[in-house]
Amino acid sequence: MTADWHDQSPIYRQLTQKILSMILDETLKAGDALPSVRQVASDYQINPITVSKAYQELLDQALVEKKRGIGMFVTADAFSRLMISERERFLNEEWPATCTRIRRLGLDIAALVQAANAATEQLPLQDDIQFKTQQRIEQGEQQ
Q: What crossing angle do the helices spanning 37-44 and 48-60 adopt, rounded to 10°?
């Protein structure tokens, strides 16, 4: 994690988002320990209460679990739960604005498909990533 904080949202929310991104990117996987509150506070020169607040948000979302005396760990279903909620948020919050912008710019489906194909050519493992992501979501739903 890098400490590039901005003024648009509280630091604890930014820290929460960084951890959520690490789970989605699979930098943090099920069973992985989060760094201690003191360690994060020291590394990023922020108040330990700020770190605790971010960790509490993750606990509230059941994406991490606290093991008394040991630390906090990513839950087994964190990736699949987060992927489902992020997809839903995207479709409900970001996609409508994207569609409005597409219409405003007069883009047609052919231009969008061409742009999408060009973008995915730069990601050679996209099919593998999508397949693995879908597998993990399905496994999470079965648990």
A: 130
Q: What is residue 126's three-state secondary structure?
A: helix
| Residue from 83, 82, 81, 73 nearest 30 by CA | 73
Helix axes 11-24, 48-60, angle to 10 degrees: 50
Task: With beta carbons less than 8 A apart as the criterion, state whether 61 and 55 touch.
Answer: no
**pTM: predicted TM-score of the whole model, two decimal places:** 0.72
**Which has the higher per-residue pLDDT, 5 or 3?**
5
Contact status, residue 73 vs residue 67, Cβ threshold 8 Å: yes
52: left (phi > 0), else alpha (psi -120 to 50), else beta?
alpha
- Taking a C-beta distance cutoff of 8 angstroms, is the pair 79, 31 a contact? no
